[in-house]
Amino acid sequence: MELIERYLQAVKFWLPEAQKEDIAAELSEEIDAQIAEREVAQGHPVDDADVEAILKKLGRPVVVANRYLPAGHLIGPAFFPVYRFVLKVALAATMGPLVLTWIGLAMFRGDQLHLGALWGSLWTAAFSTAAIVTMVFAVLERVGGSKLMDDWSPRKLPPVRHPNLIPRGSAMFELAINLGMLVFWAANLRTGTITFIPGLTITLNPVWSWFYWGFLLSATATTTLAAVSVWRPYWTPARAWARLAVDAFGSAMFVWLMRASVVASFGYAGATAPRSLEIAQAINMWSMRLSPWGLMLGLVVVLGNAYRIWRLRRRQGRVAHPAPLGV
Amino acid sequence: MNIEVLENLRGELRRGSVVLAVLGALRTEQYGYTLRKTLGDRGLAMDEGTLYPLLRRLETQGLLTSMWREHDKRNKRFYRLSEDGEQMLTQLLVEWRAIDQSIQDIVKEPSNGTH
Fold first, then answer.
1. Least CB-packed of A19, A100, B46, B72 within 10 Å?
2. Cα–Cα distance between A39 and A99 in angstroms, integer?
3. Which among A18, A50, A14, A15 is positioned nearest to A32, based on CA atoms?
4. pLDDT tens across A31-76, in order?
């Protein structure tokens, strides 16, 4: 029957050359046996509909052929979790900066950018990243790299992590640095004229007073938080929110500072007034141009803080008795 | 009860045991269709898509031998257990009985008092 021949031809298409005829002959024998059985049961010869039902039950040709083939995979089970992890990290590393840069540029040069352009860049970045990572792992799999996974020792595993613990040493270091900065800031940057660098006199515009008080406030809050962390060295939701607020405020102030053309003149020994003004304008211009990167940096800091809060909330949801919820 | 999960677990349970059944049934020479009928009649129904690739795998592993022969005026491929296959079947039956015994013991004891 033509239907059977077409079916066998379709199965053979997917089989290796050496096995095609043998497997098809055996399959043909099985189909013949099923037809004979059906004819006995029905008491009359089968028609096309009966044959179609038998072939349909056998399965789609490619599926039937595939059962005869050795199981194949691009990336095996030993490597797959590593592949998935690397893929996630690589996608975040390529697409994250792209989005952040776009946000930074869009905020200051919005007339030149379109969301469509970002969307296109994201797809290109995602596809090329996924393709490269997949190819690397596929090659590793082919050359037997997954055997490396057999060579491991429990002693080489990383120590247990306590993500909400703040190492006391780093908290004390942060406290010391912030205290030093606070004292330095209050002592040297109160006025709009910076003279503490020998040979340099930098004059700042009146807008500087906003930055002086703003950063002083931010540094005071950071110092206070660092002091609390020395006393109680673990993250709590309240402290994580406070840190997010302080960092968001500091980042916003920083971006504003970069765009505020704050330097009025940049004087040094022997510099003429026009030269001092020229240098000040150059500093202001470059500061302005680099401000999208400043914004990107600020966003990374804020997102890091947001992630910490999310992690704390998730942990609280999972643990019946969470860490102390004090300060 | 989740029927899909049950079917998956049944499939996993049967996957290993069908090899034993096929090896056992092929102590007598048979061709694919009659083997499938034999297994089905004994409560271990297998579809063609599972049986034929399995027969080829077992033959490649040297546990079965096969030959094309005319039967009822048709060419059919007959399979039977090889010598290696017989030894393997003996070993696997020992394993099978040990597993069966262990599971019987485990399900017989309601609890060992550990929680």
1. B72
2. 67
3. A50
4. 999 999 999 998 888 898 999 999 999 999 999 999 898 877 888 8
Amino acid letter for position A77: P
Contact A30 B77 (CB under 8 A): no
Low-confidence ranges of chain A (pLDDT < 70): 108-114, 318-327
SS3 A62: helix
Structure token pair of residue A316: 């609280």
- Evaluate whether ipTM surpasses 0.90: no
Return the structure tokens found at B81. 């257990």
Locus of tokens 């592949």: A83
Q: Does B79 touch chain A (CB under 8 A)?
A: no
> Under an 8 A CB cutoff, do B31 and A29 touch?
yes
Q: Considering CB atoms only, which of B49, B76, B77 is closest to A64?
A: B49
Which H helix or E strand runs over B80?
Answer: strand B74-81
A263 close to A280: Cβ distance less than 8 angstroms: yes
Specify the amino acid at residue A113. Answer: L
A166 in helix, strand or coil?
coil
pTM greater than 0.80 (yes/no): no
Phi, psi of B71, rounded to the nearest 5 degrees: -150, 125
Please tell me the distance from the alpha carbon of residue B76 to that of residue B63, in angstroms, as a whole number: 19
Of B49, B69, B32, the closest CA to residue A62 belongs to B49
Asked whether the beta carbons of A137 and A156 are under 8 A apart, the reply is no
Query: According to the model, what pLDDT value does residue A319 have?
Result: 59
Q: How far apart are CA A313 and CA A316, in angstroms?
A: 5
Confirm if A94 and A125 have CB atoms less than 8 A apart. Answer: yes
User: So what's the pLDDT on residue A325?
Assistant: 47
Nearest to B53 among A25, A34, A67 (CB): A67
Architecture of the domain delimited by B3-108: Orthogonal Bundle (1.10)
User: Are the CB atoms for A204 and A193 separated by under 8 Å?
Assistant: yes
State the pLDDT at residue A307: 93
3-state secondary structure of B66: strand
**Number of residues in chain A:** 327
